[in-house]
Amino acid sequence: MHDITDLERRGVPGVFVASVEFDLAAKVQSSALGFAAPYVLVDHPIQDRTDDEMRIIAEKAVAELLEKLTSG
User: Fold this and answer.
1) Nearest-angstrom CA–CA distance, 43 and 7
2) I need a surface site. Which of 10, 16, 21, 55 has the fewest CB within 10 A?
3) Which residues fall within 8 angstroms of residue 33, CB to CB, at 6 or more apart?
C-alpha cells in the first residue's frame, strides 16, 4: 500500500493485487494513508497454488488490472 501511494504521488500509476482476505485491511490502510489506492482482489489463498493455478488467477485479474491502471 505504501509503495503504490508513493508511486502515485510521483506520477507513476500503480495498482496493487491482494487476495480477497485482505479487502478490509486494504480499505482501512487506504483510509489511514488518505489515498484511495486502486487494487484488484484475487482468490484466497495464493501461497500454496500451483503455477497453473496462479496463471488462471492472473488471467482472471489482468483485464481489471489494466482497466484500473489506465483509467486514472
Assistant:
1) 25
2) 10
3) 1, 2, 5
Q: How many domains does the chain have?
A: 1
pTM of the model: 0.82
Full residue range of the structural domain in which residue 48 is found: 2-70
pLDDT tens-digit profile of 2-55?
A: 888 899 889 998 899 999 999 999 999 999 988 888 899 999 999 999 999 999
Q: How far apart are CA 16 and CA 44, in angstroms?
A: 15
Concatenating the DSSP letter of every residue in 22-63 gives: GHHHHHHHHHHHT----EEEE-S--TT--HHHHHHHHHHHHH
DSSP result, 29-40: HHHHHT----EE
